[in-house]
Amino acid sequence: MKKWYKWVFAGLLAVIIFAYGFCFTVREGSCAIVSRFGRVKNVCTEAGLYFKLPAPFDKVISFDSRSQYMDSGYTETLTNDKKNIILQTYVIWHVEDPLTFYTSVGSLTNAAAYLNDLAANVKNGVMGSYKLSALVSTDPDDIKIDKITAEMKAQIAEKALADYGVAVEEVRIKRIALPDNNLESVLEQMIADREKQVTQLISEGNRDAAAIKSEADARAAGIVAEGKAEAAKINAETEKKIAEIYGEAYDENAELFVYLKKLIALENSVSADTVIVMNAEDSAFEILSELE
Question: Rounded to 5 degrees, what are φ and ψ at 238?
Fold first, then answer.
C-alpha cells in the first residue's frame, strides 16, 4: 500500500515537472514569443496551451495584446499660416505583430515612447498643411478636425505597423490650446470672422426685406386697382338703377316727381344755419329760383 502511494506521488511530481518545464499557457488578451538561445522559435497569438523546452533552452516572453492608451502630452506645433498652437493628442493601439514588436520594441513602455515621438513628427507634418482656422473658427465650414485626425491616423498607423508591429486603432485630438503670444491674433481673427458674418446677415436681411416690400407693394397696387374697378362698376350700376327708378317714378306721377326733385335740391342748397326770409304766400322753390 505504501508503495502505491509512492508511485502516485512520483507520477504527480513527474507531471508537474513536465508541465512546468515543457508547457506554458497564453491567456486571452495576450501573446507570447518563444526564444531558444536568443533566437525566436515560435510566435503564439492565440490563447491556449503550448509546448516548449525547459530552461535554459527556451524562454517565453509574454506581451499584453489588449488595447493600450497613449497620451501625447502638450506639444507645440506650427500651422500653415505660421501660428504656434499647443496640440494634445492620444493614440489607442495594440500589439498586432508580436515578432516585429519583440525585435524592434521589446516592451509596452518602449512602444509608448516610440509612438509618442512618431505622433509628434506626424502631427507637425500634417498641421503644416492646414491653417489655424481648420482647428479654431466661427465658421463651421472651416473646421477640418476630422480630416486632420484621419490623416494623422493613416500616417501613424502605416509606420507603427511596419516598424513596431503595432496596430493603431484610433488617433484623436484631445485638446487645443494657444500660447499667450498668439491669443491676441486669434481673437482678432475671430472678431473679423464674426463681423463678416454680421455684415453678410444684414445684407441678406436687407435684400429679403426689399423683395418682400416690392411684392407687397405690387399686391397692394393690384388690390387697389381691382377695388377701384369694382367700385366704378358698382357705381355705374347704381347710377343706372337710380335712373331707372327716376324714370319709372316720372312715368307714374310727373308732378310728384318734379316736386320731390325740387325738395331734394332745396335740402342740398341749404344748411341748418341758413335763414330764408319770404312771404307766406311765396313758394320756397320760387325764391331759390330768383336767387339763382
Answer: -65, -45
